[in-house]
Predict the 3D structure of the following.
Amino acid sequence: MLDWIQLHFARRPMWMNALMLFCLYMAFIYSPFDLFVKPVAVDEEVWFGVRFHGSAAKLLAVPHWAIYAAGAYGFWQLRSWMWPWASIYAGQVAIAFFVWPLLYVGGFGGFVSAIVGGGLFALLTRRLWNTREFFQGDQAPLAERYGGGTAVVTGASAGIGAAFARALAEHGLDLLLVARRKERLDELAGALEKQHGVSVSVAALDLAAPAGQQALIDATEDLDVSMLVNNAGVGYSGRFDGQDPERLFALVQLNCAAPLALTAALLPRLRERGRGAVIFTGSVAGKQPLPLHAAYAASKAFDNLLGEALWGELQGTGVDVLVLEPGTTDTEFQDVAGEIPHSGQTADEVVETALRSLGHRPSVVSGWFAWLRTNAGTRLLPRSWLVLVAKRVMERQTPDHLR
Ligand SMILES: NC(=O)c1ccc[n+]([C@@H]2O[C@H](COP(=O)([O-])OP(=O)(O)OC[C@H]3O[C@@H](n4cnc5c(N)ncnc54)[C@H](OP(=O)(O)O)[C@@H]3O)[C@@H](O)[C@H]2O)c1
C-alpha cells in the first residue's frame, strides 16, 4: 500500500501533489459542508473578487464543487484537459485575491493584501500554464511505461547523473550506475536500494577508454536493459592552441564515442524489447560554437544531433529518445572543466525537465533563461555575431591563465 502511494505521488512534483490534496479536501469535505450544511442566510461565495450572498451563493457553490472535484480527478489521473483549464481557474482566483481586498477591505492594508494575494496566485497561474507537456503525456511511472528492467546511467557518481539515478529509482527502475569513483557509486546504490526497494548494481569504469566502453557493454549482457542514459561527460575550458591534445581526445572519447558505442550496442536490444528509452545529456553548449570551450561545444553538438536524429529513426518502435540540453547546472562540471564558478539550475530541476519531456519531443532545453538565450542567439543573430557574443560570455567564465 505504502509503495503504491509512493509510486503514485512520484508522478507529479510536490507542489502539484499539494494542489491535488487541496482539491480533494475542497471536493470531499469543504464543498459538501458548504452546500448542504451551511444555512442559506449566512452563505457567501466569491467569484472574480465579487461577493455573493444567500441563494445566489448557494447556487454558485455548485460550480465551485464541480471545479474542485474535476481538479482532484485531473491531477490524480494527469488528464490532458487539465491544461490550460487549471491555469485559467487559478487566474480567476488571482483576480479574486486582487479585487476582493480592494473592494471590501480598502485602504493601505487592502492594497498590500491585493498585491501579495493576487501576486502569489499569479505565480501559481504561471506555473500551471507551463505544465502543458506534463499533462499531455503518459506520466505513468517509467517502470510501468517501459516494462520494468534496468536503466544504465553513466556519470552517476555526481551531478546530473546522480540526479537521474535518484529519479529513475523513484520511478521503480532497477539501475546500473557507471562512473570511475566506485565509493560514490556504492554509497548511492546502497541509499537507493534502501529508499526505493530497487536493485542497483555499479560498474566503476573509465568510459574515456574504448576498453571501458566495451567492459560496460559486456556488463549489461545479462540485464534486461530498458533505458540507457548517456550522461557522463566533461568540459575542458581554455584557448584551443594551449590545450593538451591527449585531454582533448579523452573528452571526445567520453562525450562522443562512449554514447555512440553504448547506444549502438544497446539499441537493437531495446527495439527487440518493443519499449524502452535512450537519453543523451547534450547541452545548450552544442547549439552554437563556443570560443574557449571549442572542443566541448563541438562534442555536445554531436550528442544533440545524434540523439535528435535517432528520435526520428525510432518513431513507432516503442523506443523513446530524448536529448536533454541543460544550461548552466550546479554540479562538479565547472570545477572539472576549469571554469570560473557561476551558478544555474539544480541537477534535480534539469532531470525533472528531462523526464517530463521524454516521449513527447526530440530534445528539451532545461530552464527558461537558457532557452531564451540560446534561441535568441541562434535564431536572430548572424553567425559571426553569435560567435563573438559567445566569446564574450566565455571570457567571463574562463580564468585569465587559460584565455
Ligand atoms: N553542469 C553543467 O552546467 C552542464 C550543462 C550542460 C550539459 N552538461 C552535461 O551534463 C553531463 C553531466 O555533467 P554534470 O554537470 O553532472 O558534471 P559532473 O558533476 O562533473 O558529473 C560528471 C559525471 O561524469 C563522470 N565521468 C567523468 N569522466 C568519466 C570517465 N572518464 N569515465 C566514466 N565516467 C566519467 C563523473 O564521474 P567520475 O569522476 O567518478 O568518473 C561524474 O559522475 C555531461 O555530459 C555534461 O556535458 C552539464
